[in-house]
């Protein structure tokens, strides 16, 4: 039952070429920067990545894209504070983009974790995003059918974790992390501190350990915005 790992390299060692990887976070909040950088070091390529945005600066997800490891990105906001890496890669024809409205993205991931193959939403009806999708009318309103979204791996970031994988999050860093943990076959979590069993009040557990495959401690994790202010580049 001990799901703790000693280092980041071991945590990402099983991620193969061609994997679909969900990466938690909303911008820099809750983004598992150290796990992403470990994935770059590991060398996996031809990845499909699911994230809320397309990365900023030259660290984290942006660095993963800059290193040519991502073939396809599924996200809501490909242009954010400094999306230059993604924009240049996209215009060069080196990465495929699937735009998904933010609420729809969250619900597709949640549906994947809940075992719901498809659902209907009015979001995107009448737009290019709905082209080719099944449309149905309910009570006089048109809805778009969307499919669940699942992944081979999820890389997430928490605050506290124990050896069984039970986790908490720090404030807004909760965002996409809990639903991604449920929607992936293998969920790898970095936490700021690993505590003994019983060190987390059961009432405070957000992601139960049943959804977490491995947990690794990363004390004082880097914040994407701080790295970008320092003009950091990885690797």
Give the key terms.
235 residues; alpha/beta; eight-stranded parallel beta sheet; three-stranded antiparallel beta sheet
> Sheet bearing the most strands, described?
8 strands, parallel
Tally the helices: what do you get? 7
The counted number of beta strands is: 11
Radius of gyration computed on alpha carbons: 18 Å
What is the terminal-to-terminal distance?
A: 34 Å
What is the spatial order of strands in the main beta sheet?
1-11-10-9-2-3-4-5
Order of helix and strand elements from N to C terminus: EHEHEHEHEHEEEEHEEH
- What's the rounded overall pLDDT mean? 97
Outline the structure in words.
By secondary structure, the protein is of the alpha/beta class. 24% of the residues lie in helices and 26% in strands. It has seven helices and eleven strands. The protein has helices at 8-12, 33-42, 60-66, 84-91, 102-114, 177-183, 224-229, and strands spanning 4-5, 20-23, 47-50, 70-75, 96-99, 118-121, 135-138, 141-147, 151-161, 184-194, 214-217. An eight-stranded parallel β-sheet has the order 1-11-10-9-2-3-4-5, with helices on both faces. Strands 6-8-7 form a three-stranded antiparallel β-sheet. Helix 6 links the parallel strand 9 and strand 10 (184-194). Helix 2 (33-42) packs parallel to helix 3 and helix 5 packs across helix 6 (177-183). It is globular and about 55 Å long. The protein starts with a strand and ends in a 6-residue tail after the last helix. The mean pLDDT is 97.
